[in-house]
Amino acid sequence: MGSHWMMSTPMPEAAKKLVVLDASHVEEVASQVDFVFCAVNMKKDEIRALEEAYAKAECPVVSTTAHTALLPMCPWLCLRSTPSTLRSSPPSAVVGAPSADSSP
Question: What does pTM read for this prediction?
Fold first, then answer.
């Protein structure tokens, strides 16, 4: 990776305290965190399996992918919801707030 991930500014003090864990150790990680953020470079089926494993461990997953969005155990967040978005989504799948420009 070289300098690709190097910041020109000093690392913030709060970031120095962050701990990176092995995501494949689902039970260990899930027992230590409130949720996981998933942004990985893996095959689709591997991402789905990883996210589903965290969901089964009752650990909420914030994901950059849509691979598990319609699984019953994986609600998805729709930040700019509109009435049409909410009507076209499974009722138990949406967690979010209406867009500022949507009408009631």
Answer: 0.58
